[in-house]
Structure formats: structure tokens, C-alpha cells
Design a protein that fits this description.
single chain; alpha/beta; Rossmann fold; Arc Repressor Mutant, subunit A; 2 domains; 8-stranded mixed sheet; 3-stranded antiparallel sheet; 15 helices; 15 strands; 17% strand; globular
Length: 373
Amino acid sequence: MADFFDETSEQSAVKSAIVAKYFWAWAKIIIPTTKQHGGKIAYIDLFAGPGRYKDGTKSTPLLVLEKSIADSDLREMLVSVFTDADPDNTRSLQAAIDALPGIDTLKHRPQVNSYKVGADIVKSLESMRLIPTLFFVDPWGYKGLSLRLVNSVLKDWGCDCVFFFNYNRINMGLANRAVVEHMNALFGEERADALRERLGTMSPADRELTIVEELVAALKEMGGKFVLPFCFKNASGQRTSHHLIFVTKHFKGYEVMKGIMAGESSSSDQGVPSFTFSPADVRFPTLFELSRPLDDLRARLLRHFAGQRLTVRDIYVRHSVGTPYVERNYKDALKQLDAESRIRADPPAERRPKRKGELTLSDRVYITFPKAG
């Protein structure tokens, strides 16, 4: 871990960009309501690191604070807390924060603490009613990361969580009896035991899918209604190194983060994002699409909504959760089905406006699907 911040990487830059972009979007959604009820929002960053990589690149805490300094509402409302167990990291982070131009314009001075994340902080968060908070947990491995920790923040209104899931270390940890307590805290004891029984004979690809699916299921059982993983591959693009996991109780947050993660994906097929960042995608772009996911979406919509009439927006909201598809994919699929006369749109194409020569399909257009076979 000592050299983790020696130099930035493409993966680290993407991770920071995803969190900082979501913080900005989340804050803009939360602020109008929060102004009427206390006027504060929070950003809590555990395992915050030193603030900058050795090459000078800003990590997530500085990106979040810069966005806050630049916005009049956030300057007044943001309460920020950064923790790290390493005193060298907290000293470096404090110095980096103090050097930010305009840092003194924040009404609430950022708090930088040096302590180990464990049961005490979980109990403290569980016992208090939190103001709207974006919670970022970025451990090097798995120590300190637990379902209780995530839920301790997610339980309150306006609170969302993003955490770093070190797939390599957790994959190994599930087979290591010395870290049973940590794995049980992350998956729940019963689910962790079942995983240990199932994983032994699985292929590496199936192991990854199973572990991530079980984590998602555990988070949903806890109350995180919407869970969205983003995968990072190693330099060769052959193996997963880690995931960034987003958890929220509200579809709007899920929709916003899905759009951000889609934009940070390093590849897409037919405009459908991979929700993966792989350095190999950047160096070796594929010459042709290996799958046809938009074709599949069209077929799935015809089956799923057979005989129903509903708006474009309702189709997206009801069908998109747990899929890789974003809003524009649904509109592209529906426009194609409409052009092929496989669905009926109201108003029809001839009564809808065009933008830059392309036929529009607004959220309020009604779609009637034919009855099944």
C-alpha cells in the first residue's frame, strides 16, 4: 500500500472522476430540499489518502472540495469529513486542502482525522440521524468495509454510498480462514458460508459474476434498493482488478450514476456502455462489435411489455434497473421498432418534431406494444 499513491493510473483517475461527477450531480438534486430543512449536506470520505499522487494529480477529496469552492450554495452548505489511519496521509491531505485556492470561503472547514475505521465509527454513525450525505469508502483491501458500515449512512434520507470493492483480495479472502470475520462482515455470515461452498469448482469468470451478484443481493436485502457496479480491468484487460459499487435507495440517484458510469466506460457495443474501464480498450480498440445488445433490447421490450400501453419514460424506469442500458438506448430501440411498425407510437412519427434532421421521441410519447404471439 505504501506506493499506492506514488503515481496515478488510468483506473484511479476514472474512479475519482466518477465520484466527483456524482457528488456534483447529487448535490444539485439535494440542495433545493435541504435549504428548507437545516441547510447542510455532507461528504464523508473514509480511507481518504494523501490528497495528491506523487505526480501531483489530485485525488477525490481535492476534486470534491474544488467543486464546492466554485459553487455558492456548496460553499455555505457542505460539511466534509476525511479520515485515514495513516498519519502521513492525513498530514499530506491537510496540507493539500490548505493549499487549495479559495478554501477559506467554505463556511464549514473540512475535517481531517487520523483513525482506523472499525466498529466504533459504525456504532457512531448508526446512532445518529445524518444530514444528506454522500459516503465514499475506498479501502485498500477489505478491512473496515462491512454491510453495517454502508447501512449506517444509507439509512437516512438523501444519503448515498460509493465504495471500492477490491475483487482480487476479496476473491482470495473468501478461501482464507484467517479472515473469516472480515468476509462475514462484508457478505453476511450465511451468504459468505454459502459462497465458500459454491466457489471451489467455478471458473474464474463464474466466480467473479457470483461474488458480485451475491454482494449486490446482500446490499439490496439491507435496504439499498438500487446497486450499480462498475468494473476495472488490469493493464492487459484480461482480469478484473476491482469494482466501484454504488448504492442508493432512489431511482433518480441510480439513473444519474448510471449515466456517469456509462460515460466513463472504455467501450460500448451499438451505443450500449460496458460499465467497465479497461486500459486495453484504450490501447487496442476492437475492430468490430462482438455482440448486438441493442438488437437484444428490442426483442426484450417486445416480450416484456406485450399488450401494454405506457410512456417512453415509464418503459425506461420499469425496465432499466439491473441492465446495462441507459435512456438513450431505450429511445434508439423504440425508434427502430416504430420505424419497422412493430409498435405504435402516440403521437405517431409524422406528428413528432425533428431535431437536426432526426425524429425525436420524448418521455411523454405513448407506446403500444402488440400482444404476445
